[in-house]
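Hi F.,

I've been meaning to write this up properly since the lab meeting, where we talked about keeping a consistent format for the predictions we share between groups. The idea is simple: the sequence comes first, exactly as it goes in, then the structure tokens exactly as they come out, then a line or two of notes. No screenshots and no reformatting. I'm using this chain as the first example so we have something concrete to point to.
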Amino acid sequence: MSVTVDGDKSRSVPDRVRRILRGPRPEKVPALVGTACTLIGLIDIAAGVFPRFRASRMHALAEVLPGTLGPLSAALSLSAGVLLLLLAHGLKRNKRRAWRAAVVLLPLGAVAQFVWRHSLAGALLSLALLALLVRHRDEFAALPDPRSRWRALANFVVMGAGSIALGLVIVSAHPRRIVGSPSLTDRLEHVLYGLFGFEGPVAYTRGVDWTVGYSLGALGMLTALTTIYLAFRPEHPAARLTEDDETKLRALLDKHGARDSLGHFALRRDKGVVFSPSGKAAVCYRVVSGVMLASGDPIGDVEAWPGAIERFMDEAKAHSWTPAVMGCSETGGHVWTRETGLDALELGDEAIVDVADFSLSGRAMRNVRQMVKRIERNGYTTKVRRVADLSDAELDRIRRAADDWRGTDTERGFSMALGRIGDPGDGEAVIATAHKEDDPDTPGTPYGDLKAIIHFVPWGPDGMSLELMRRDRSADPGMNELLIVAALQNAPRLGIKHVSLNFAMFRAALARGEKIGAGPVLRLWRGLLVFLSRWFQIESLYKFNAKFQPRWEPRFVVYRKSRDLPRIGFAAMQAEGFVNLSLPSPLARLTRRTRTTAPRPCAHIVPTQTEHEVRAA
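Output, unedited:
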């Protein structure tokens, strides 16, 4: 008999009972198993470290869970807890290798429970979990993430630090069994000796030294084995754009490149690409910390975008990556959300100047006009040319100067940066340079009269998009304004009709928050952005762009769930180079050039750094 349940007449009580008896839905199994592994791991670690916990009522439950085995229960419980914590994240992400590891370990745990502890309940629990994994094996089909051997070094540092910290807890967890009063240095020395399997200076009574020794040895063994595994497993290289992929993308840009100002940035060679079945559209991406990060709109024919987007989502699903798009246009946002069910959030605005409407006359351009005239009176001249028109010697000088004038040791940029200057395939790119003869009474620079550089990439046949801005630290302030004005004034000669400048993050909030009548929430949000501008160029970049009287085009971030936004933001900061988790080699640190610190800029001057640093700030 059907009854109404929460207003739904189509549901019957027997149906609900059958769903309960069938257990959790298949898509919920990975999260359930991962959460169970996390909880069991924490219990096992606590059971292996704290003697009172092992004697408590909670230990009666922990004894039937995988990890507390035989006479070496403390060390084995500790080891199992650490391994389960490491395994849980992979199971939650549907990783096939995590499933394989669990399927191998659970029978071993069941045998250990029955043979060593004669625990039928523990063996049955392990086998029940194994049966659940085998039944839902199709849910664990995600392929491995791109990886490199840097992770072995990162694992050694993280696991080593964690083992030392946990080892100090183990050494100090038996205060009534310690002989004497060893100092913190003695305890730390005991931990370090124990991780390598040697006896340290701290002594215990009643056999506790065996428990501590086995536990420390287990931690050291786990650190060594996981590091060795990561160091010698086959390396999966990061995404690289092949010559064939680049050729196809350039053909698409020749036909459809005028639609998006960020299209040429898809030619970065550290990105992967997926094409639509017809080959008429493509999505470029990079995987960072489990996030499959696309940038800008898809490349190619708008009608073929859904096919490329579907391939992108299939790739993300196959690896259990979190899909996200940074900086897509309003049209791109509509297509992404319509085809995938993702959500979109306005991220900021792109400043675009229409060359026909640009002029230095008028009160609104007074500050820029005065600055440019002052710099020109100081003896600076400018040149605006296509890359194809520069000689090899001058291109080499510009490349070396751009690298030396970079404000950070890390090359920044991803979504709005090309990462190269003067490539043979980028002959249509535009370079604007500022020059001034050195004073005979002052030492010359390695780059002669070259003082500043800005680089534009093509935006279709009649546009260009700003890619980087760099200058000599000894040059006068205002080099960026001088070169942008020079580029805009020379644009008609080069057949350029519109120029994309920087991307101003949260521009709308900054603009509305400073107006009369803004509400308290908007003012508070603007105040937070102004505060963050002390470390990131948020307000200063907006004001810098606004000086050229551009039109503003909104850009969006596309995401799956709201809880994914912090993870996506962190991955985007890694991709842009603001967060660097890789560990440089000692040789690279020793050979790295010492860079001078830039002076604090005036309020109206954008700090001299690459344009993609400015865009992504």
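Notes:
The CA atoms of residues 532 and 538 lie 8 Å apart.
The radius of gyration is 30 Å.

If this format works for you, I'll send the rest the same way.

G.
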